[in-house]
């Protein structure tokens, strides 16, 4: 082994998974002078947290090894694709903190794919087949039985060229014929049993309109796109492992590197085409419990109105995570923590929450808020008394500075911080008991005002010797609670989010149930609370820790200064571990 390039962030430990090891070897041996990767989403839905793993891997490698990374829309399946998704995907990649070298579409290469297919036909490596989809299945054989040759397999090159050109001219209806690679119907790998590489589909395409009545299949288009873009390491998830021989077959038999005439139209159109032979490497998908991640299921949740939209803060979509308040750095941390391997594993939802907590703890200021308010009145201060108290914005980082918090004799405290009949070990406020009001001093509860069974107010005296800054401030009491000044606090809508599903594996389809039956009825609760004035003034998407309550983020769409709406991004502790 020889020298390795310095990592992008010299303070972070160098990542050394098997893919990065391969890349280091390829650079050291001179196989490649530079690396090039790509992130290739199909624009048929919004990106989710699984895609974040792939984005962090591809773009992370670009940063660490000084390579270029393309964003390529794998838009070969026009029926399910939409420009709305294209825009959202671009926004999500940038939000995660990455920028692509070039934006490409597989559809940019349709002409090259077509010419390449003509070359395969001319070389006797592809043929037009008239079997129906059902017949193709019959002929394909099974895992234990070889397939049978299509009766159309031995058509002459001339006939194949004529038929394929007429497919392209739009002469035949959908499904009438396919173009198939001529490989081996007896192969142990079913992907190599003369796979279709073109199908007829008279469907408008989001990028090319009605220009094409035929569309290339994924396995044929993907590898050639990689080759055209000079992708050195084509990183994909494990389910493509069995497709790798076909990937290599297409790359080798089309051989763009030695046939530049095939991509001349692209060059003429101004594209740079650093054609090279790419290598596919597979890694394991990210799976997380208590959620679903397939685009099909996410789409169903949205379409059936089970969530409020693609950016519902309970969804694992990047738009949902963003709206909930998850910082992009937390997803990058998750990707690092989960790492890259060939081992499929299921990550506990608490690992994601831990990454969010850790990131937000160091990145976000503290504020005071009360989300289930109970009135506390200090009776030994004159009514109309008002003070401004100085609070530090972060307990561990003075750079966050300080702020002024208004204080007056009428406060809101959390209802759960007072108990008339406390259980053993309850250290907060009880009748006749004392508690510290954060940043103020020690109060004693003298009187409880009730309306029927409901406590509506607790009346307290403040021990003047325990005010912050005085020698008596050190006097010990067991509990400290937070508060906001009733006269100054601003009413806020607070959305308390929790896991969308109440079981770890909502994908299990047992006893006729589907993931829809496992939705967590407590996954969102909307309450009205009170927040200190400085929190109400924050811009949308600003996150804070409401002390003792959790990390919250001003809603991206509904929050406005003066009309605050906060989403609970994550609680301060893992409340599911106990349950
Ligand atoms: P889904 O199965 O959720 O519909 P997909 O694989 O069809 O997703 P693509 O748009 O084709 O979605 O994916 C783009 C890239 O993201 C691919 O390289 C794919 O392998 C990768 N990817 C998708 N899901 C995951 C995941 N859970 N973990 C890691 N990478 C993923
Ligand atoms: Mg896919």
Automatic annotation (TrEMBL):
EC numbers, comma separated: 6.1.1.18
Short sequence motif named 'KMSKS' region, residue ranges: 292-296
Subunit structure: Monomer.
Gene of this entry: glnS
Sequence ranges assigned to domain Glutamyl/glutaminyl-tRNA synthetase class Ib anti-codon binding in this UniProt record: 366-463
Name the record gives this protein: Glutamine--tRNA ligase
Binding positions for L-glutamine per the UniProt entry: 74, 218
Renumbered ranges of motif 'HIGH' region: 41-51
Catalytic activity: tRNA(Gln) + L-glutamine + ATP = L-glutaminyl-tRNA(Gln) + AMP + diphosphate
Alphabetized InterPro entries for the sequence: aa-tRNA-synth_I_CS, Gln-tRNA-synth, Gln/Glu-tRNA_Ligase, Gln_tRNA_ligase_bac, Glu/Gln-tRNA-synth, Glu/Gln-tRNA-synth_Ib_cat-dom, Glu/Gln-tRNA-synth_Ib_codon-bd, Glu_tRNA_lig_a-bdl
Family per record: Belongs to the class-I aminoacyl-tRNA synthetase family.
């Amino acid at each position: 082994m020889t020298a390795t390039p310095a990592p992008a962030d010299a303070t972070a430990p160098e990542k050394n998974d098997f893919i990065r090891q391969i890349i280091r070897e390829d650079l050291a041996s001179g196989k490649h002078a530079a690396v090039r990767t790509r992130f290739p989403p199909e624009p048929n839905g919004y990106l989710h947290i699984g895609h974040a793993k792939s984005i962090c891997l591809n773009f992370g490698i670009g940063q660490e090894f000084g390579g270029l990374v393309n964003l390529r829309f794998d838009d070969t399946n026009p029926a399910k694709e939409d420009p709305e998704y294209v825009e959202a995907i671009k926004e999500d990649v940038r939000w995660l903190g990455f920028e692509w070298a070039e934006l490409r579409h597989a559809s940019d290469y349709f002409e090259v794919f077509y010419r390449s297919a003509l070359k395969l036909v001319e070389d006797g490596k592809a043929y037009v087949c008239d079997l129906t989809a059902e017949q193709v299945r019959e002929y394909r054989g099974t895992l234990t039985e070889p397939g049978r040759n299509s009766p159309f397999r031995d058509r002459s090159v001339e006939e194949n060229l004529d038929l394929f050109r007429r497919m392209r001219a739009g002469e035949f209806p959908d499904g009438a014929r396919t173009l198939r690679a001529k490989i081996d119907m007896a192969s142990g790998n079913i992907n190599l049993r003369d796979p279709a590489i073109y199908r007829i589909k008279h469907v408008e395409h989001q990028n090319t309109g009605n220009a094409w009545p035929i569309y290339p299949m994924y396995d044929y288009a993907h590898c050639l796109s990689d080759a055209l873009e000079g992708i050195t390491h084509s990183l994909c998830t494990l389910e493509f492992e069995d497709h790798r021989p076909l990937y290599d077959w297409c790359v080798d038999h089309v051989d763009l590197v030695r046939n530049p005439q095939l991509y001349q139209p692209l060059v003429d159109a101004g594209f740079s085409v650093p054609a090279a032979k790419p290598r596919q490497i597979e890694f394991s998908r990210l799976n997380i419990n208590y959620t679903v991640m397939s685009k099909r299921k996410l789409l169903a949740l949205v379409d059936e109105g089970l969530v409020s939209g693609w950016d519902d803060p309970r969804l694992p979509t990047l738009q949902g995570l963003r709206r909930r308040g998850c910082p992009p750095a937390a997803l990058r941390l998750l990707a690092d923590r989960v790492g890259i391997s060939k081992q499929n594993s299921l990550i506990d939802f608490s690992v994601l929450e831990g990454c969010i907590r850790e990131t937000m703890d160091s990145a976000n200021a503290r504020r005071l808020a009360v989300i289930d308010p109970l009135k506390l009145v200090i009776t030994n201060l004159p009514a109309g008394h008002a003070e401004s108290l100085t609070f530090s914005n972060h307990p561990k980082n003075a750079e966050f500075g300080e702020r002024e918090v208004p204080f007056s004799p009428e406060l809101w405290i959390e209802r759960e911080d007072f108990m008339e009949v406390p259980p053993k070990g309850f250290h907060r406020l009880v009748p006749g008991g004392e508690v510290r009001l954060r940043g103020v001093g020690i109060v004693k509860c003298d009187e409880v005002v009730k309306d029927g069974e409901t406590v509506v107010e607790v009346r307290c005296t403040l021990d003047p010797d325990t005010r912050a800054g005085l020698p008596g401030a050190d006097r010990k009491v067991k509990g400290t609670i937070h508060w906001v000044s009733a006269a100054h606090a601003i009413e806020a809508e607070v959305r308390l989010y929790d896991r969308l599903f109440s079981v770890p594996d909502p994908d299990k389809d047992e006893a006729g149930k589907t993931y829809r039956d496992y939705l967590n009825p407590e996954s969102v609760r909307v309450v009205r609370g009170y927040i200190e004035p400085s929190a109400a003034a924050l811009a949308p998407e600003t996150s804070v820790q409401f002390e003792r309550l959790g990390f919250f983020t001003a809603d991206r769409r509904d929050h406005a200064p003066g009309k605050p709406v906060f989403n609970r991004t994550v609680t301060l502790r893992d409340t599911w571990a106990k349950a």
